[in-house]
Amino acid sequence: MDLLAHLEAYVATVDETSFSRAADRLGIAQPLLSRRIKTLEARFGGLLFDRSRRQVATTELGMLLLPYARDVLDRAQRLDQAARSAQRAQVRAVGVPADCAPAGLARVIRAGAERGSTLGVRELPPREREARLADGSLAFALLRVPPEHAAYRVPLGLASAPPLDAGRPAHTTPGGARGRTVHLEDLRPRRLGAATGARTAPLPILTLPEDDVPYARDRLGRAAARSGLPEQLVRPAGPAATALAETLAGRALLLCDEPFARRHGADWAPLADAALHRGYEVRGTPRQPSGDVPQWLAAALAAAAGAGTGARAARPPRSADAASRLAARG
Known about the structure:
- This protein is an alpha/beta fold.
- The protein is built from 12 helices and 13 strands.
- Helix 1 packs across helix 2, helix 1 packs across helix 4 and helix 5 packs antiparallel against helix 10.
- The C terminus is likely disordered.
């Protein structure tokens, strides 16, 4: 027996002093309401209403039990309200890359609050974001995918130390000029002079944990090999702070997006090869319907990661010197 539904029928009949009006109030058929009251009477062992009169009258047993019935219904209503409030206040964890812009993440949190959803961002490496989304530890996550299949794309480039003086070696600025598109061929060792035949040693290219995904490592390794760069030139950076220190000291180049480089005072030049850029899509936990990711949340998360949408976001800027670009490709 659905005790709450039966008690609602009982209390409504007392209030309305009519079976038909009570049924209308509850939105059910009168025969159903009558059956519920008879079931209660059988349970309590006595009549709740005197049906011998034209107007329904409550019996002494009915009046005695009425305060308890109202109390049960009131407690059940408060329980439902508490459950709804707890659900609204529940923090929904969102997995994001470790190098997202703090201001962008703040916009994500505020956008959730404006829509009645409490979001908590969790900075995690790519594989951990995917694993925690699968086991339900995260409600949503920004996941890495190949850029050609991505809804959101982040152009990558090489960060380098800003020039401190005129004597800094030219190869510390990978594009040769600030903002010029970089091809990996540009980083090949260069001759110091015809007389000595010596060559400059290329700076190592460090990669952040966000790019430690199998397809990204393979693509970068193959691209470096095609460009004639030493195999050991590209290596994982470890902690971002260490990689930035090496980069700003002029001892390495760092593969990253432009906002990340600018936030830390580094020069940056975009990579020409769009296949080496980052691709993202926003997914919800498998326990939710597949279409349960709100568009506003997906867009805000992608913006925090520095992403745009469509093919235009993945297209590298044009080099100012097409002849130099062709020469670099050999």
